[in-house]
Amino acid sequence: MERLTRFIEEKIAPPLIKFSNLRYVQIMQRTFISFTSLLIIGSIFLLLASLPFDPWKNLIGDFSLKFAAASGVGTAFIALFVVVASSYATIEYYNKNKGEKLDFVAPTILAVSSFFLVVPAVTVQTVVKGAKETVPFVGVPTNFLGAKGVFVGLIVGIVTIEIYRFFINKNWTIKMPEGVPPMVVNAFIALIPSTFAIIFWWLISIVIGIDLPGIVMGLFTPLVSASDTPSTVFITSFLNRALWAVGIHGGNVVGSIANPIWTQMTAANQLALEAGKALPHMFTSVFYDNYIWTGLAPLAIVMSFSKSKRLKALGLLALPAALFNIGEPLIFGLPIVMNPLMMIPFVLGYMAVAVLAVILTTTGIIPVPVLSAPWILPAPIKTLMATSGSIPAVIYVIVTWVILGLVFYPFVKAIEKNDLKEESLAEAE
Questions:
Q1: Closest Cα partner for 293 from 230, 378, 372, 213?
Q2: Cβ atoms 335, 29 nearer than 8 A
Q3: Which among 130, 143, 200, 227 has the fewest CB atoms less than 10 Å away?
Q4: Dihedral through CA 223, CA 226, CA 230, CA 231, nearest 10?
Q5: CA–CA separation, 99 vs 154, rounded Å?
Q6: Most distant CA pair in the chain, distance
Q7: Each residue of 240-288: pLDDT tens digit?
Q8: What is the DSSP string of 298-367?
């Protein structure tokens, strides 16, 4: 382990850290760190609303709905957060590193407005309570306001600011006489750059009719086969983690294609189990949920023992949520998203778990999980329920945690080394 850690620190980490210092990589990292606190707060409310323990459920009763109402503060409109954060981070980068003096307010509002041009409002017929007939309702589709719209929001936020600063740097703005209040000056300075930015997105989305959200999703949405084969398991597992690593909800993307087939396969397995017959399928969604997606608790535990104050604090904060399969505080807070050093173990670690799961299941060492269990249950308990009390299956989950912890460890140590340097420099100042 020491040799591997040293190899990563000396050979792998330096070029990746150099890459992470590139302009847009820094902007993306700053973007996702910006709303970490909301993700943690939302995770806590989700835990309080969904803890699967009868004494707790009986205690809070219907009050769980009030907890649930706040559980989406960090995720329900995460694409909008990304637009705001990425535009702010882009301005911050140029002001800090290039000596520019861009205003924050007007360009950030411009980026949000541009996003709603790219993801425009639609009119649908709906039924209003008390009405005798359907009425038109105008609203913004929510499918791209959440995790599916993260990458689109990132593109719109950065590109909008780049258009804005192009006009500012060319000095193609409206000049106001001296003595005019600064707020008024900033408003008129923003007029020409904002106009051209809006026209740019209007032409692309409305006039030309380019479906940017659809194109972005299409580029990252794999054509996953729904066949019941090990190769599908490996492809699906890789795509899930790889998409998450670039900020796209891998579960939603893959599931949107495979869920109809997975549902049929799961129902067939449950009917067979009830009838005492052999299971017709092996690699259903229940298999993935219990044998591959065993959570990020191992990463949180490794971070909790870090010498880096940042890593240790984040690990301890994220651990309760991670134990209950809520990984967003680590995915977006560490971050794993667009962090080349953490993308490697995040993808490869779960690929190793997928290979092990296929081998042990096909050889009969662990049973095929059939019963659906609440996703928020800690992995060992969830798997115990899904496999009707299989001890080998529970042992397997614990083993996967050990494997994932060992995979994450050297990469966390590499980040720790860099963090300690920054902390020592900060203390010296």
A1: 378
A2: yes
A3: 130
A4: -20
A5: 23
A6: 86
A7: 888 788 777 777 667 756 765 776 677 778 777 766 788 888 998 889 9
A8: HHHHHHHT-SSHHHHHHHHHHHHHHHTT--HHHHHHTT-TT-HHHHHHHHHHHHHHHHHHHHHHHTTSSP
Rg (CA), the chain: 24
Residue 227, pLDDT above cutoff 60: no
Name the β-bridge partners of 124. 137
Residues 353-374 as b or e (16 or more Cβ within 10 Å = b): bbebbbebbeeeebebbbebbe
**What is the rounded CA–CA span in Å between residue 142 and residue 137?**
14
Question: Distance between CA 286 and CA 371 in Å, rounded?
Answer: 7
* 40, 318 contact by CB (below 8 A): yes
Q: What sections of 221-276 are H helices per DSSP?
A: 230-245, 250-275
- Taking only the tens place, the pLDDT of each residue in 75-105 is 778 889 889 999 999 999 999 999 999 999 9
> Residue 224: is its pLDDT beyond 90?
no
Q: Which two three-digit tokens encode residue 198?
A: 């809006």
Cα separation, 46 vs 67, whole angstroms: 7
Average pLDDT over residues 371-388: 85
Map tokens 């795509």 to a residue.
239
Q: Which residues neighbour 298 within 8 Å (Cβ) at sequence distance 6 or greater?
A: 401, 402, 404, 405, 408
pLDDT of residue 32: 78
DSSP structure class, residue 293: -
Assess whether pLDDT exceeds 60 at residue 378: yes
Which residue has 């599916």 as its token pair? 148
Tokens of 389: 């009390």
- C-alpha 48/C-alpha 60 separation (Å) is 9
What does pTM read for this prediction? 0.67
The structural domains of the chain, with segments of one domain joined by +, span 2-22+224-428, 81-217
Render the burial of 55-74: b for 16+ CB within 10 Å, e for the rest.
Answer: eeeeeeeeebeebeeebebb
DSSP assignment of 78-126: HHHHHHHHHHHHHHHHHHHHS-----SHHHHHHHHHHHHHHS--EEEEE
What are residue 128's phi and psi, to 5 degrees? -95, 140
